[in-house]
Protein backbone atom coordinates (compact mmCIF):
# COMPACT_ATOMS: atom_id res chain seq x y z
CA UNK A 1 0.00 0.00 0.00
CA UNK A 2 1.04 3.61 -0.33
CA UNK A 3 0.31 7.10 -1.66
CA UNK A 4 -1.59 7.97 1.52
CA UNK A 5 -3.34 11.23 2.36
CA UNK A 6 -4.42 12.18 5.89
CA UNK A 7 -7.93 13.54 6.27
CA UNK A 8 -10.17 14.56 9.16
CA UNK A 9 -13.91 14.03 8.80
CA UNK A 10 -16.60 16.37 10.12
CA UNK A 11 -16.91 14.29 13.30
CA UNK A 12 -13.24 14.64 14.19
CA UNK A 13 -12.16 11.16 13.08
CA UNK A 14 -8.84 10.84 11.29
CA UNK A 15 -8.29 8.58 8.29
CA UNK A 16 -5.70 7.73 5.70
CA UNK A 17 -6.97 7.44 2.13
CA UNK A 18 -4.48 5.31 0.23
CA UNK A 19 -3.90 2.76 -2.51
CA UNK A 20 -3.47 -0.94 -1.81
CA UNK A 21 -4.25 -4.34 -3.31
CA UNK A 22 -6.29 -7.31 -2.21
CA UNK A 23 -4.31 -10.44 -3.05
CA UNK A 24 -6.04 -13.31 -4.81
CA UNK A 25 -3.25 -15.84 -4.44
CA UNK A 26 0.03 -15.33 -2.61
CA UNK A 27 1.19 -11.85 -3.64
CA UNK A 28 -0.78 -11.60 -6.89
CA UNK A 29 -3.93 -9.65 -7.65
CA UNK A 30 -5.97 -9.33 -10.84
CA UNK A 31 -8.13 -6.55 -9.37
CA UNK A 32 -5.17 -4.18 -9.25
CA UNK A 33 -4.79 -1.16 -7.00
CA UNK A 34 -7.87 0.08 -5.20
CA UNK A 35 -8.64 2.96 -2.86
CA UNK A 36 -8.76 2.10 0.85
CA UNK A 37 -9.79 3.96 4.00
CA UNK A 38 -7.79 3.17 7.14
CA UNK A 39 -8.36 4.71 10.57
CA UNK A 40 -5.62 6.85 12.14
CA UNK A 41 -4.86 7.58 15.80
CA UNK A 42 -2.55 10.26 17.16
CA UNK A 43 0.08 9.69 19.86
CA UNK A 44 2.45 12.42 21.00
CA UNK A 45 1.77 14.36 17.84
CA UNK A 46 2.45 11.43 15.49
CA UNK A 47 -0.13 9.59 13.33
CA UNK A 48 -0.40 5.81 13.81
CA UNK A 49 -2.00 3.73 11.08
CA UNK A 50 -3.01 0.11 11.65
CA UNK A 51 -1.02 -2.19 13.87
CA UNK A 52 2.67 -2.97 13.44
CA UNK A 53 2.64 -1.66 9.85
CA UNK A 54 -0.19 -4.05 8.93
CA UNK A 55 -3.94 -3.63 8.61
CA UNK A 56 -6.78 -6.02 7.86
CA UNK A 57 -8.92 -5.68 4.74
CA UNK A 58 -12.06 -5.21 6.85
CA UNK A 59 -12.48 -3.78 10.32
CA UNK A 60 -14.98 -1.80 12.35
CA UNK A 61 -14.49 1.94 12.50
CA UNK A 62 -16.32 5.18 13.34
CA UNK A 63 -18.02 5.62 9.99
CA UNK A 64 -21.06 7.88 10.09
CA UNK A 65 -23.11 6.09 7.42
CA UNK A 66 -23.89 2.46 6.75
CA UNK A 67 -21.78 0.89 4.02
CA UNK A 68 -23.92 -1.15 1.66
CA UNK A 69 -22.55 -3.94 -0.48
CA UNK A 70 -22.83 -3.26 -4.19
CA UNK A 71 -25.72 -5.28 -5.59
CA UNK A 72 -26.50 -6.43 -9.10
CA UNK A 73 -25.80 -3.75 -11.71
CA UNK A 74 -27.53 -3.96 -15.09
CA UNK A 75 -26.92 -1.67 -18.04
CA UNK A 76 -29.95 0.26 -19.27
CA UNK A 77 -29.76 -0.04 -23.04
CA UNK A 78 -33.07 1.78 -23.45
CA UNK A 79 -31.07 4.95 -22.83
CA UNK A 80 -28.64 6.44 -25.33
CA UNK A 81 -26.43 7.73 -22.52
CA UNK A 82 -23.53 5.73 -21.13
CA UNK A 83 -23.74 5.00 -17.40
CA UNK A 84 -20.85 6.01 -15.12
CA UNK A 85 -19.28 2.52 -14.68
CA UNK A 86 -18.45 2.08 -18.38
CA UNK A 87 -14.79 2.26 -19.42
CA UNK A 88 -13.18 2.34 -22.86
CA UNK A 89 -9.73 1.87 -24.33
CA UNK A 90 -8.20 5.28 -24.98
CA UNK A 91 -11.01 7.50 -26.30
CA UNK A 92 -14.48 6.13 -26.94
CA UNK A 93 -15.28 6.02 -30.66
CA UNK A 94 -19.01 6.66 -30.82
CA UNK A 95 -19.19 5.52 -34.44
CA UNK A 96 -18.58 1.95 -33.22
CA UNK A 97 -21.51 1.89 -30.80
CA UNK A 98 -25.22 2.56 -30.94
CA UNK A 99 -27.41 2.54 -27.84
CA UNK A 100 -31.18 2.66 -27.52
CA UNK A 101 -34.35 0.61 -28.04
CA UNK A 102 -33.20 -1.84 -25.38
CA UNK A 103 -29.95 -2.91 -27.01
CA UNK A 104 -26.33 -1.96 -27.59
CA UNK A 105 -25.06 -2.41 -31.14
CA UNK A 106 -21.33 -2.97 -31.61
CA UNK A 107 -19.57 -2.42 -34.95
CA UNK A 108 -16.49 -4.70 -35.12
CA UNK A 109 -13.05 -3.09 -35.12
CA UNK A 110 -10.50 -4.42 -37.60
CA UNK A 111 -7.79 -6.37 -35.77
CA UNK A 112 -4.28 -4.96 -36.27
CA UNK A 113 -2.41 -8.05 -35.03
CA UNK A 114 -3.00 -11.31 -33.20
CA UNK A 115 -3.36 -9.76 -29.73
CA UNK A 116 -5.07 -6.48 -30.64
CA UNK A 117 -8.70 -6.25 -29.50
CA UNK A 118 -9.53 -2.99 -31.27
CA UNK A 119 -11.64 -0.09 -30.06
CA UNK A 120 -15.05 -1.77 -30.00
CA UNK A 121 -14.80 -2.61 -26.32
CA UNK A 122 -17.07 -1.32 -23.55
CA UNK A 123 -16.12 -2.60 -20.11
CA UNK A 124 -16.74 -2.24 -16.39
CA UNK A 125 -14.49 -2.89 -13.43
CA UNK A 126 -15.22 -5.92 -11.20
CA UNK A 127 -15.63 -4.75 -7.60
CA UNK A 128 -14.83 -8.08 -5.97
CA UNK A 129 -13.11 -11.39 -6.66
CA UNK A 130 -16.35 -13.35 -6.50
CA UNK A 131 -18.88 -12.08 -9.01
CA UNK A 132 -20.84 -13.03 -12.12
CA UNK A 133 -20.89 -11.27 -15.48
CA UNK A 134 -23.67 -12.08 -17.94
CA UNK A 135 -24.91 -10.89 -21.32
CA UNK A 136 -27.49 -11.84 -23.93
CA UNK A 137 -26.02 -11.36 -27.38
CA UNK A 138 -27.20 -11.66 -30.96
CA UNK A 139 -24.46 -11.90 -33.57
CA UNK A 140 -24.43 -13.31 -37.10
CA UNK A 141 -20.77 -13.31 -38.21
CA UNK A 142 -20.52 -13.07 -41.99
CA UNK A 143 -16.88 -13.75 -42.81
CA UNK A 144 -13.98 -15.67 -41.33
CA UNK A 145 -12.61 -13.87 -38.29
CA UNK A 146 -15.78 -12.00 -37.32
CA UNK A 147 -16.25 -12.36 -33.55
CA UNK A 148 -18.13 -10.77 -30.65
CA UNK A 149 -18.70 -11.60 -27.01
CA UNK A 150 -17.24 -11.02 -23.55
CA UNK A 151 -13.65 -10.01 -22.90
CA UNK A 152 -11.65 -10.01 -19.67
CA UNK A 153 -8.86 -7.53 -20.29
CA UNK A 154 -5.72 -6.61 -18.38
CA UNK A 155 -3.69 -5.21 -21.28
CA UNK A 156 -3.19 -5.86 -24.98
CA UNK A 157 -1.14 -9.03 -24.48
CA UNK A 158 -3.02 -10.39 -21.46
CA UNK A 159 -6.70 -11.10 -21.94
CA UNK A 160 -9.34 -13.85 -22.26
CA UNK A 161 -11.88 -13.78 -25.11
CA UNK A 162 -15.20 -15.64 -24.88
CA UNK A 163 -17.06 -15.17 -28.13
CA UNK A 164 -19.16 -16.32 -31.03
CA UNK A 165 -16.82 -16.50 -34.03
CA UNK A 166 -16.89 -17.52 -37.67
CA UNK A 167 -14.07 -19.82 -38.74
CA UNK A 168 -13.40 -21.43 -42.12
CA UNK A 169 -15.62 -24.42 -41.32
CA UNK A 170 -18.52 -22.73 -39.52
CA UNK A 171 -19.62 -20.64 -36.56
CA UNK A 172 -18.34 -21.61 -33.12
CA UNK A 173 -18.40 -20.60 -29.49
CA UNK A 174 -14.71 -19.94 -28.78
CA UNK A 175 -12.79 -19.46 -25.54
CA UNK A 176 -9.29 -18.13 -26.16
CA UNK A 177 -6.59 -17.23 -23.64
CA UNK A 178 -3.73 -14.85 -24.44
CA UNK A 179 -0.80 -14.29 -22.07
CA UNK A 180 2.07 -12.49 -23.78
CA UNK A 181 3.49 -14.93 -26.37
CA UNK A 182 1.30 -17.83 -25.18
CA UNK A 183 -2.09 -18.34 -26.82
CA UNK A 184 -4.46 -21.23 -26.17
CA UNK A 185 -7.95 -21.99 -27.43
CA UNK A 186 -9.76 -24.27 -24.98
CA UNK A 187 -13.25 -24.39 -26.49
CA UNK A 188 -14.59 -24.86 -30.02
CA UNK A 189 -18.33 -25.52 -29.76
CA UNK A 190 -20.47 -25.26 -32.90
CA UNK A 191 -23.44 -22.93 -32.40
CA UNK A 192 -26.50 -22.12 -34.47
CA UNK A 193 -28.08 -18.81 -35.35
CA UNK A 194 -30.07 -16.95 -32.71
CA UNK A 195 -29.41 -15.34 -29.37
CA UNK A 196 -26.68 -16.66 -27.12
CA UNK A 197 -26.19 -16.09 -23.40
CA UNK A 198 -22.63 -15.78 -22.09
CA UNK A 199 -21.79 -15.97 -18.40
CA UNK A 200 -18.51 -15.73 -16.50
CA UNK A 201 -18.46 -16.87 -12.88
CA UNK A 202 -15.42 -15.41 -11.14
CA UNK A 203 -13.60 -16.32 -7.93
CA UNK A 204 -10.15 -15.67 -6.53
CA UNK A 205 -8.38 -18.33 -8.57
CA UNK A 206 -10.54 -19.17 -11.58
CA UNK A 207 -12.84 -17.79 -14.22
CA UNK A 208 -15.60 -20.23 -15.21
CA UNK A 209 -17.11 -19.62 -18.66
CA UNK A 210 -20.66 -20.74 -19.48
CA UNK A 211 -22.91 -20.35 -22.50
CA UNK A 212 -26.54 -21.09 -23.31
CA UNK A 213 -28.43 -21.19 -26.58
CA UNK A 214 -31.99 -19.98 -26.85
CA UNK A 215 -34.21 -22.16 -24.67
CA UNK A 216 -31.34 -24.28 -23.39
CA UNK A 217 -29.40 -24.66 -20.13
CA UNK A 218 -26.01 -23.15 -19.39
CA UNK A 219 -23.07 -25.33 -20.46
CA UNK A 220 -19.52 -25.02 -19.12
CA UNK A 221 -17.17 -24.02 -21.94
CA UNK A 222 -14.02 -24.07 -19.81
CA UNK A 223 -12.08 -22.48 -16.98
CA UNK A 224 -9.06 -20.19 -16.89
CA UNK A 225 -6.71 -19.16 -14.11
CA UNK A 226 -6.80 -15.62 -12.78
CA UNK A 227 -3.01 -15.88 -12.30
CA UNK A 228 -2.17 -14.94 -15.88
CA UNK A 229 -4.25 -11.76 -15.69
CA UNK A 230 -2.62 -10.57 -12.49
CA UNK A 231 -0.68 -7.31 -12.53
CA UNK A 232 2.40 -9.02 -11.14
CA UNK A 233 2.59 -11.47 -14.07
CA UNK A 234 2.05 -8.85 -16.77
CA UNK A 235 4.38 -6.29 -15.16
CA UNK A 236 4.29 -2.51 -15.63
CA UNK A 237 0.57 -2.68 -14.95
CA UNK A 238 -1.37 -1.82 -11.81
CA UNK A 239 -4.94 -0.96 -12.77
CA UNK A 240 -6.29 -4.53 -12.80
CA UNK A 241 -8.75 -6.28 -15.08
CA UNK A 242 -11.91 -4.98 -16.67
CA UNK A 243 -14.63 -7.08 -18.30
CA UNK A 244 -17.09 -6.16 -20.99
CA UNK A 245 -18.50 -6.46 -24.49
CA UNK A 246 -16.41 -6.40 -27.65
CA UNK A 247 -16.60 -7.02 -31.40
CA UNK A 248 -13.68 -7.71 -33.72
CA UNK A 249 -13.01 -8.57 -37.37
CA UNK A 250 -10.04 -9.51 -39.54
CA UNK A 251 -11.17 -7.09 -42.26
CA UNK A 252 -14.05 -4.73 -42.92
CA UNK A 253 -17.39 -6.48 -42.41
CA UNK A 254 -21.06 -5.61 -42.49
CA UNK A 255 -21.75 -7.86 -39.50
CA UNK A 256 -22.54 -6.27 -36.14
CA UNK A 257 -23.43 -7.54 -32.67
CA UNK A 258 -26.44 -6.62 -30.56
CA UNK A 259 -26.28 -6.94 -26.78
CA UNK A 260 -29.76 -7.19 -25.28
CA UNK A 261 -28.46 -7.11 -21.71
CA UNK A 262 -25.29 -6.80 -19.64
CA UNK A 263 -25.03 -7.23 -15.88
CA UNK A 264 -22.45 -7.77 -13.16
CA UNK A 265 -22.93 -8.49 -9.49
CA UNK A 266 -22.29 -10.76 -6.52
CA UNK A 267 -22.93 -14.48 -6.92
CA UNK A 268 -25.98 -14.53 -4.65
CA UNK A 269 -27.72 -11.90 -6.82
CA UNK A 270 -28.03 -14.47 -9.62
CA UNK A 271 -29.64 -17.22 -7.54
Automatic annotation (TrEMBL):
Keyword Glycosyltransferase attached: no
Gene3D superfamilies per the UniProt record, alphabetical: 2.60.120.200, Glycosyl hydrolase domain, family 43 (2.115.10.20)
Matching Pfam families: GH43_C2, Glyco_hydro_43
Originating organism: Hungatella hathewayi DSM 13479
Gene Ontology terms describing biological process: carbohydrate metabolic process
UniProt keyword Magnesium present: no
Name listed for the protein in its UniProt record: Beta-xylosidase C-terminal Concanavalin A-like domain-containing protein
GO MF, one annotated term: hydrolase activity, hydrolyzing O-glycosyl compounds
Family listed: Belongs to the glycosyl hydrolase 43 family.
Segments forming domain Beta-xylosidase C-terminal Concanavalin A-like: 75-263
UniProt keyword annotations, A-Z: Glycosidase, Hydrolase
Alphabetized InterPro entries for the sequence: ConA-like_dom_sf (IPR013320), GH43_C2 (IPR041542), Glyco_hydro_43 (IPR006710), Glyco_hydro_beta-prop_sf (IPR023296), Glycosyl_Hydrlase_43 (IPR051795)
Amino acid sequence: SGHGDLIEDHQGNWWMVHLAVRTARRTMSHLGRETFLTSVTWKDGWPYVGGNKLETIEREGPLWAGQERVQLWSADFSSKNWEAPWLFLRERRDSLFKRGDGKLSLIPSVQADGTDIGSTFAAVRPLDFECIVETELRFCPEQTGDEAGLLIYLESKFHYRFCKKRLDDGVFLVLEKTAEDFKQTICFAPVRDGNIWLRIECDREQYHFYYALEGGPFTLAGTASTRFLSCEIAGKCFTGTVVGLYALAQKQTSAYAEAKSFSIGPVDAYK
